[in-house]
Design goal:
The chain is an alpha+beta fold and 257 residues long. It has six helices and 14 strands. The strands form four sheets. It has a six-stranded mixed β-sheet, sandwiched between helices. A hairpin with a 2-residue loop joins strand 1 and strand 2. The chain is globular, with a radius of gyration of 19 Å.
Length: 257
């Protein structure tokens, strides 16, 4: 399976050793150039680097839509993405290295003021748990080798985009890159993630106009604070039929206020 590498390992079960032909998640280094200027280097999964590059440019505000991109191509070796814009570009001089799997990079100041989302979307508990279950069912790379994060952009009407990467923040960029190329509006959608919701992930979500963020695990203290400030419904520990709503619970039906 693309994105995985074949390995042979020894499995111990009750002290008994057994050789196994299996796989592990691939890790790659992908460079992003904009108008011929090196912008960032990602430690990521190697599949669909264009989705990651375009989504990253959108989450960082370097492009506003796919119409800002004149052309883009992935190098033959798959290790570089060249993006040429329809406008001048000057690389930022200050980089912020963020926490997270693979070490995310962002040029955004998470402390800057953002307007709260006024989206009136409401979801049911059945929808929330159903989206999580569907995402895990469609996480083919995770189901094959583990060691990879999955995120989904869910339309309450039924459509779902799936992105997988060894970095959880990379999955959000991939989703936005996919959405732009398909001319899908991300506003009013629901973001479902397998990994921890940290501040940089919530910053990407508010940029996408996503009013509901669901995680299988925990949000951080800063993401809860930002969720309250930005009027985002932050949901954690969505497992089976249970979950916890940390902010803006009014968007979820049957939640005690």
């Amino acid at each position: 399976m693309f994105g995985s590498a074949a390995v042979r390992y020894v499995k111990f079960d009750h002290g008994v050793a057994k050789p196994v032909d299996g796989g592990v998640i691939q890790e790659a280094q992908i460079c992003l150039y904009v108008n011929g200027v090196e912008l960032a280097t990602f430690m990521c999964s190697p599949m669909a680097p264009g989705d990651l590059a375009l989504g990253f440019l959108r989450t960082e505000g370097i492009i506003g839509s796919i119409s800002d991109v004149r052309t883009w191509r992935v190098a033959d070796n798959g290790e570089c993405v060249d993006v040429w814009l329809n406008k001048p570009f000057e690389a930022p001089t200050r980089r912020i290295i963020t926490a997270g799997c693979g070490g995310g990079v962002t040029f955004d100041d998470l402390a800057q003021t953002r307007a709260p989302l006024d989206d009136l979307l409401r979801v049911s508990p059945v929808q929330v748990t159903g989206w999580m279950k569907q995402m895990h069912q469609r996480a083919d790379l995770y189901n094959a080798v583990r060691g990879v994060h999955t995120s989904a952009l869910c339309d309450p009407g039924g459509e779902m985009l799936i992105a997988q990467d060894l970095g959880r923040h990379n999955t959000i960029d991939r989703l936005w890159g996919m959405a732009m190329q398909q001319n899908l509006d991300t506003r009013g959608k629901v973001l479902v993630a397998s990994g921890r919701i940290s501040s940089e992930m919530l910053s990407k979500a508010v940029g996408m106009g996503v009013p509901v963020v669901v995680s299988r695990t925990s949000p951080t203290s800063l993401s809860v604070q930002l969720g309250a400030a930005w009027n985002i419904t932050v949901i954690g520990y969505c497992r089976g039929e249970q979950f916890r709503v940390y902010t803006a619970p009014w968007r979820v039906a049957s939640v005690a206020q």
